[in-house]
Amino acid sequence: xxxxxxxxxxxxxxxxxxxxxxxxxxxxxxxxxxxxxxxxxxxxxxxxxxxxxxxxxxxxxxxxxxxxxxxxxxxxxxxxxxxxxxxxxxxxxxxxxxxxxxxxxxxxxxxxxxxxxxxxxxxxxxxxxxxxxxxxxxxxxxxxxxxxxxxxxxxxxxxxxxxxxxxxxxxxxxxxxxxxxxxxxxxxxxxxxxxxxxxxxxxxxxxxxxxxxxxxxxxxxxxxxxxxxxxxxxxxxxxxxxxxxxxxxxxxxxxxxxxxxxxxxxxxxxxxxxxxxxxxxxxxxxxxxxxxxxxxxxxxxxxxxxxxxxxxxxxxx
Length: 317
Fold this sequence. Notes:
Mean pLDDT: 93
Order of helices and strands: EHHEEEEEEHHEHHEEEEEEHH
Radius of gyration: 22 Å
Largest sheet: 7 strands, antiparallel
Strand order of the largest sheet: 1-7-6-5-4-3-2
């Protein structure tokens, strides 16, 4: 029986950013959907402070892939080792290590990936190498970009949530959120929606709408639906002008006295776009307030319509 050949791709980058910041960004995978463009969603399955298992959803060659990874975090050595427990064809196995090394007054980040390919067909190996190398370079470049702005990240990241309580059908509220292609007839700020469910529970959506001042706005997103848990998570792949990234979640939690419907938003502001959108004298604080107000306005319209749908089902019954 032949042994699968192991292929390796090594990528590295140097930066003036502090090593501890680089390690922190590598270690906290729950923040990756906001910080790394290809990463759509991360669910932490288990974590004991050192070892963790996470399920990841990410874009690979314009298609959504999902896998489970086991990771070991070594803060003392500033390295993260990982192994994919399940991989997508044609990749049979994938593991690696990302480490930060001192380099004089700079830091060097090295990402080493090892993988095997089912059947070891040359075309499949070439595809896998290209994808691994492309994603490794993109991830390291983004890691450096973030780490070199670490003093500004707290100001550039904005997270908030809005919740409504109601009496009604939790399933009907979720159904409204799930059937976003009906939103143009239900929500005044939505002009058109193109929704494709390429696989059960995974939706790709393009939406054209209006901002609070009536300006046109176009976004595209990937939505992952968990109907059994009453959750729908989303990430914009094409954002509005002020946002570098936007992720979020709708969650429905029934209890003995009613139902809580919550919309959560996490955004990374694009500081260099503020002047063009809000004027030369606009500040980052004003941009944060503007984005919060815009998202809350549209969120509350959706929340209110979801509640009306849920209440309508109860009245019909």
